[in-house]
Design brief:
Blueprint (H helix, E strand, L loop, with lengths): L1 H29 L3 H6 L5 H11 L10 E3 L21 E5 L5 E6 L4 E2 L11 E10 L4 E5 L6 E6 L5 E5 L3 E2 L3 E5 L5 E12 L7 H10 L13 H36 L4 H15 L2 H15 L12 H13 L1 H16 L2 H8 L4 H29 L3 H7 L4 H10 L3 H29 L7
Helix pairs in contact: 1-14, 5-6, 5-8, 5-9, 5-11, 5-14, 6-9, 7-8, 9-11, 10-11, 11-14, 12-13, 13-14
Length: 443
């Protein structure tokens, strides 16, 4: 078994890597800029840049030597910021192909607009491409424009492509049109140099996951790992109890259906399961709070101060989820009742009670245990609705608050850990099946 576990764990490494990659793409690419989501669109570009710098969001996604900076925002849709129009003689026009072009007319000089000063400890480069009248010069100057560090001149062909050398912070771009004064630029970017090609967001993300560093909550300022530790206790106190009670009741009633199959008891249980499955989960919560807590005062409505505060969530969670578990376990039990080994046991004269509890239950536990093992990882994330409606400070309640406040680090940590636990549950399920079913071999 030990070799099988090691081999399976080794096989799970690509799966875990894929899960990490998908989680990274969902939170870093699909959702847009994490800084804009957390801080809001009205935050200053320098504030967004500092936020990205602190959390590693200003690096290339996977690999790369260069990355864009918010000091000169440009992309394929808007390669030229609107601030260019503030300079007399500068205009952004569309060419024949529909792409934008920056046209500079006059003597200048024209300075590329920066939203904030470049940090002196970083290296940057400018890339400029287009056409211009001969004699046009492009220069990289100091922050106060007192020192020119790099220059380039357009030759007689008029076409040019200028790449400045990596310049420590403060490098500003100046363009002086030549005689006749016209420059048409099709590409203008400012990029920051990375320490090495592997200094990327994905590598940074993997390193933090390996160190169990899930970041800092934007809403509370606490480390995310500390928030998870504080929330896991209330969540497990709620979900584990509901899970065990639901499992015990479902198996007991399913055995009763197998024992009294095709009788009034069996039909009543089926109707009960359908009713429990048909009523929405939220209805049970609202009805329970209003009737049992508010009207009768039998239970507290809100809080997590004592066990008494959990009785009503326990009851609602158990009975609202009992229908699906009962239908599944009843189907498994009745399916076993029509197997050949059951007919053989009856033919030998064994009583129904012996056949049911010694043979049927043992074989029915194989699919039941599989479903139980696969459900265990979901206990970690708690119950979103129960915790939110009853004020239980578990991971479900924290996840809802994190979603409402766009606290990406908390949501990402909850999703990532839950996914990894689900993958590991597959391995535990194989071991459990091999333990209870002699027909299964770990190979």
């Amino acid at each position: 078994m030990g070799r099988y576990v090691l081999r399976r764990l080794w096989q799970l490494i690509p799966t875990l890597f894929g899960v990490l990659a998908i989680t990274f793409l969902l939170f870093h690419v699909v959702g847009g800029s994490p800084a804009a989501l957390m801080l809001g669109k009205h935050q200053s570009p320098q504030g967004l840049e500092e936020f990205d710098e602190a959390r590693g969001f200003n690096k290339p996604l996977f690999l790369g030597r260069w990355t864009r900076t918010r000091a000169y925002p440009s992309d394929r849709r808007t390669p030229f910021p609107a601030d260019w129009r503030r300079q007399p003689g500068a205009a952004i026009v569309a060419d024949a192909a529909g792409g934008p072009r920056l046209v500079l007319s006059g003597e200048g000089p024209f300075e590329a607009p920066l939203l904030f000063d470049l940090p002196a400890r970083r290296q940057f480069r400018w890339t400029v491409a287009g056409t211009a009248t001969p004699g046009t010069s492009i220069a990289i100057v100091s922050a106060d424009r007192s020192v020119t560090t790099q220059t380039a001149a357009v030759n007689a062909t008029g076409r040019f492509q200028f790449h400045s050398r990596p310049e420590p912070g403060g490098g500003r771009l100046l363009i002086r049109p030549g005689p006749g004064g016209r420059v048409e630029i099709r590409r203008l970017t400012l990029e920051r140099r990375m320490a090495n090609p592997f200094d990327s967001q994905f590598i940074h993300f993997l390193g933090r996951v390996i160190r169990l560093d899930f970041g800092v909550s934007l809403a509370t300022g606490q480390p995310v790992l500390q928030i998870l530790r504080e929330g896991i206790g209330p969540s497990l106190a709620l979900t584990v109890t509901i899970f065990l009670a639901d499992l015990a009741l479902a198996i007991a009633l399913a055995l009763g259906c197998a024992y009294f199959r095709n009788t009034a008891f069996d039909r009543i249980v089926v109707v009960l399961a359908v009713v429990l499955m048909s009523v929405n989960y939220l209805v049970w919560i609202v009805a329970g709070q209003y009737l049992l807590a508010y009207r009768l005062g039998a239970f507290p409505v809100w809080g997590f101060e004592s066990v008494r505060h959990l009785w009503l969530p326990w009851c609602i969670g158990t009975f609202s989820g009992l229908g699906a578990s009962l239908r599944f376990n009843r189907t498994v039990m009745l399916d076993e009742m029509y197997r050949d080994y059951v007919r053989t046991a009856f033919a030998k004269g064994l009583p129904l009670r012996t056949v049911l509890f010694r043979h049927v239950l043992k074989n029915a536990l194989i699919p039941i245990l599989t479903s139980v093992v696969m459900a265990i990882p979901f206990l970690y994330t708690g119950s979103l609705l129960l915790e939110s409606f009853f004020g239980i400070p578990g991971l479900g309640y924290l996840s809802v608050n994190a979603l409402n406040s766009l606290d990406v680090d908390v949501v990402r940590a909850v999703v990532l850990i839950g996914t990894i636990l689900y993958i590991l549950a597959n391995l535990v399920g194989d071991l459990v099946n091999a333990r209870v079913d002699p027909r299964v071999r770990l190979e």
